Amino acid sequence: MAERLIVVGADAAGMSAASQARRRRDHRDLEILAFERGTHTSYSACGIPYWIAGLVEERDDLIARTPEQHRERNIDVRIGHTVVGVDLDRRAVTVREPRGGETTHEFDQLMVATGGEPVRPDWPGIDGRGVHGVQTLDDGEAVSASLRSRDAKRAVVIGGGYIGVEMAEALIRQGLEVTLVERAEQPMNTLDPDMGERVGEALKAFEVDVRMGVTVEGIELDGEGWARAVTTDAGEFPADVVVLGLGTQPGVTLAEEAGLPIGPSGGIVTDRRMRVPGHDGIWAAGDCVEVVHRVTGRPVAIPLGTHANKQGRVAGINLGGGYATFPGVLGTAVTKVCDLEIARTGLREAEAEEAGFAVVSAVIESHTVAGYYPGADTVTVKLVAERGTGRLLGGQIVGGNGAAKRIDVVAVALWNHMTVDEMTGLDLGYAPPFSPVWDPVLVAARAASDAVHG
Amino acid sequence: MAERLIVVGADAAGMSAASQARRRRDHRDLEILAFERGTHTSYSACGIPYWIAGLVEERDDLIARTPEQHRERNIDVRIGHTVVGVDLDRRAVTVREPRGGETTHEFDQLMVATGGEPVRPDWPGIDGRGVHGVQTLDDGEAVSASLRSRDAKRAVVIGGGYIGVEMAEALIRQGLEVTLVERAEQPMNTLDPDMGERVGEALKAFEVDVRMGVTVEGIELDGEGWARAVTTDAGEFPADVVVLGLGTQPGVTLAEEAGLPIGPSGGIVTDRRMRVPGHDGIWAAGDCVEVVHRVTGRPVAIPLGTHANKQGRVAGINLGGGYATFPGVLGTAVTKVCDLEIARTGLREAEAEEAGFAVVSAVIESHTVAGYYPGADTVTVKLVAERGTGRLLGGQIVGGNGAAKRIDVVAVALWNHMTVDEMTGLDLGYAPPFSPVWDPVLVAARAASDAVHG
Q1: Mean pLDDT rounded to a whole number for chain A
Q2: Which pLDDT belongs to residue A149?
Q3: Is B355 exposed, middle or buried (0-12, 13-18, 19+ CB in 10 A)?
Q4: Buried b / exposed e across A242-272, counting CB within 10 Å, b at 16+?
């Protein structure tokens, strides 16, 4: 008789796992049943701001594979189905059906891919109409509907992280007046302050009203329950639409209630094969888990689509009888805001110090391509290294076209425990349309090496 | 009394060395005298095709530092001075002065940076007017002068390597009819044939008349000694201008005559500090030397500006009393031909096999950015790995905007002896404007890993 795999959450991690397992085991050997509380599967959540901005035409362009397409491959996806309980002893999940009522489904293998839960402070008015997170495609549709139905003129984006700055840009592109409020002194707190400052400048140049160091107190609603303004310790900001970009935390309620181990970072604990230790046949992957940070060696929960896809694939290979391991993360992330490319990997200064490293840093300015070549733009590269040893600990890049993906060089160097000294010798590609003869990353490595040697 | 450093050849390697030495030792401690047979110093030879194409406006844009600028920093550069002999016993060089006559100059330290010599077959007519190599800025000026003075309509480019394909594009951009003739069956023999074929297609789409498998027999000249046609075993190709893109070999005549050691690849032998072994105070760097290939462990002479700059810097740091080593090369190279980006690093299949590796390869097609994002273009990535171990041996990339510099990820992985298995876990940057969620390099690593495991 076939084993049954139940997948909870049918997005990046869950469906990568299901697909890999299916590639290796056919439906006579492994039945796969996936429950999704939303209405879409396997879509690019990272693409939502670009769709709202109008850069991506159709919502469906963001969907890599629909429930129907999964079903054609013998993966039984049920949308609108919320898993409300997991009984590890009975090896069964309880599911709230879309039309009400609950059903129970037994499993042999369970893949927990419950994703991240958006941070939603307990502010008055946060549940008002026109107040939206942007985690799921359903959220994106809700934002889009609010914009249309209200003929919205003014938006307030709360939070200056990736989603916040991307949504600020998207709403400007849709012709709204946009205010970005953030508690910290600069946007993008995944960067060091000196680099984050440049993001703030780019947002201002794009006519986003950037308000840093501002604490939100609540959202004022009108008589019909629609958002009217965001109230803060720096006054009131009118808003027809409010976007919450306050980040996410691992979505572990279900796992926690079932008794699965939750680690210090708040994510479900997994081993290198994405198994939940101590629970045979239970797997977890994606924004709901914690994994090892390769620089600190500590567990972290970093919600990124790349990690979710890789972890899901690893789990699926193992579920399918193969062997694969997830080697940990560096937290590499890139984005583009108002023509400014932004990238980071590893530890920023404060993170490195908090992890016990003594650090030296170097910041250099260079060009994205040969200075004399048409379209040459500036790029700023910062490298953080360990004092004494010169071990690379992290890097950050902001700049024009061609800046961001240079972080991958820093990421692979970091992955391999290189020192900034060693990096100066790296044999990178050069031609005038692509780079100065010394790639900006190498210029930064030279500067960091000089800094290490005092 | 100050030591005297004589530099032979005042371009990338020579002047990088001189500049680094000067940074560390002032003119009272180290006199620096540089002889250059051409008329320019410290320029971007790689930029010449783009200047001829009209993409770079001014010739002087290619010059990073003029002789005057070097002299202001107490580096005595003498252009038009050809070093014709080195006497290692007397520790002196003999120099042919620009107005005739020879002078002798003693040195304490000697930096040999004589660059590469273009390959010039002994064809009838090769010394004709309108027949040009494109190694130096003086060569570039000569091409430019020929184009103007002849009102040239038709060009033949001989050789389908970097310079050949870049010059073919440049001349098309200048409105000429261009024929590219190449002995091999496809252009870019630094790539495997399956990848090189795509370069040929791009050239054809750009209206270059590409003639592969053609052996040149000579260049026919008219009554005034100007090029009229290139004669080949496949007939005659009319040409007002002929460009030679046949590559270079290490320029070691001077070194060889002086008795310096020449290695199996034809370059001057150096140690990791760029010293010539057995010859105290003699240094060499740039296209005239051989260095270790990090994958094969064998000596190679690969003429690339990136290597020359790095080697010159290493020599200069050591000359200045510091400590630096040159760690070897991977042969990473990128270029752009007719909107097709081209990149390679490490060993191609034939090179790997010749070096004794049994190989498996994987070729994948993906997108430069998320498939749904505006401007998404195709990219083809090939990885070559060792059979059994899965050790990465090399990579090649061709594709649209954003393709080429992805080779740097492959280069850093190669530098660190990664296997293609390990590469599948790399934490690279992802956002829709920059990459699919699985970067094309990771897709290739997955395919290569599958190929390794059969």
Answers
A1: 96
A2: 87
A3: middle
A4: bbbbbbbbbbbebbeebebebbebebbbbee
CB contact under 8 A, B429 and A412: no
β-pairing verdict for B227-232 and B235-238: antiparallel
Q: Where in chain B are the domains?
A: 3-117+249-319, 120-246, 339-449
The residue whose two tokens read 């567990």 is A299
- The answer to whether A16 faces chain B, any CB pair under 8 Å, is no
CATH superfamily of A3-41+61-117+249-319: FAD/NAD(P)-binding domain (3.50.50.60)
Question: Are B408 and A407 an interchain contact pair (Cβ–Cβ within 8 Å)?
Answer: no
**Structure tokens, A259:** 């008794």
Q: Give pLDDT, residue A454.
A: 83
**B120-246 sits in which CATH class?**
alpha beta
Q: What is the pLDDT of residues B56-91, one digit of tens each?
A: 999 999 999 999 999 999 999 999 999 999 999 999
Tokens matching residue A432: 């005038």
Q: How confident is the model at residue A71 (pLDDT cuts 50, 70, 90)?
A: very high
Could you say which architecture CATH assigns to the domain B339-449? 3-Layer(bba) Sandwich (3.50)
CB B167 within 8 A of CB B52: yes
Q: Tell me: the pLDDT tens digits for A376-394?
A: 999 999 999 999 999 999 9
Domain B3-117+249-319 fold: FAD/NAD(P)-binding domain (3.50.50)
To which H or E segment does residue A384 belong? strand A378-386
Is B338 one of the catalytic residues? no
How many CA atoms does the CB half-sphere of B366 hold within 13 Å?
26
Amino acid (1-letter code) at residue A447: A
Q: Does A376 touch chain B (CB under 8 A)?
A: no
Residues 309-348 of A with CB under 8 A from B: 309-310, 325-336, 341, 343, 345
CATH topology of domain A339-452: FAD/NAD(P)-binding domain (3.50.50)
Rounded-to-integer distance, Cα A221 and Cα A233, Å: 18
Q: Which two tokens stand for residue A51?
A: 């769709």
Rounded to whole angstroms, how far apart are CA atoms B12 and B6?
Answer: 15
Q: Residue A4: which residues within 8 A CB-CB, separation 6 or more?
A: A30, A31, A32, A33, A105, A106, A107, A108, A109
Among residues B3, B24, B46, B173, the one annotated as catalytic is B46
